[in-house]
Write a structure and sequence with these properties.
two-stranded antiparallel sheet; about 5% strand; mainly alpha; Four Helix Bundle (Hemerythrin (Met), subunit A); about 55% helix; flat; 2 strands
């Protein structure tokens, strides 16, 4: 078993899970709700999506050969305005994720120690991937938290429902075998 391949496959699986989690939260909201922010210093889900999409397009375009902060990116603009439709927002979201999946999916284990730059700072490919895992998990959590606040009692849980942990564990034991004591 090749550790580099396991790492790349695990990173891709984690990215897919983050994307799916955020999308399941986003699906529960109207366009109006996607643009709601708790206060002037906070971001709406729409702005978080705009930022995440811009970040992924910049970071993963020509990943191995150009700086991850492209001169065409305007990060500050990502935190302004919004989207006129859910379709417009999801098109930007999908484009960013597709760029990430193409770039990471094309990597080979021997690429993991190559040096890339992000804002002129050198990173190994592993460091750049881990930086993105951190960044996207941070914003996925924000998306879920905001969606849960907006939906309140109408929230459809994305993980194990409250009070169902023991039932979940029992299902896993039945599926995968006895739990270690």
């Amino acid at each position: 078993m090749d550790l580099g391949r396991v790492y790349l496959d695990t990173a891709l699986e984690n990215f897919r899970n983050m994307k799916r989690t955020a999308e399941r939260a986003i699906e529960q909201l109207s366009l109006h709700e996607l643009h709601w922010a708790p206060n002037d210093e906070s971001n709406s889900i729409a702005r978080i999506v705009k930022h995440v999409a811009g970040n992924m397009m910049s970071r993963w375009t020509d990943f191995l050969t150009t700086d991850g902060e492209k001169p065409t990116r305007n990060r500050d603009k990502e935190f302004e305005g919004g989207y006129t439709s859910r379709e417009e927002m999801m098109t930007a979201w999908e484009a960013g994720w597709e760029k990430l999946f193409q770039a990471v999916g094309s990597l080979e284990p021997e690429d993991l120690l190559k040096i890339v730059t992000i804002r002129t700072q050198p990173h190994t490919v592993v460091q750049a991937i881990e930086r993105q895992v951190y960044h996207l998990s941070y914003h996925t959590g924000q998306i879920v938290y905001l969606a849960k606040q907006i939906r309140g009692a109408d929230w459809q849980t994305l993980t194990i429902p409250r009070g169902k942990s023991q039932e979940y564990l029992e299902n896993m034991v039945n599926r995968f075998g006895k739990k270690d004591e």
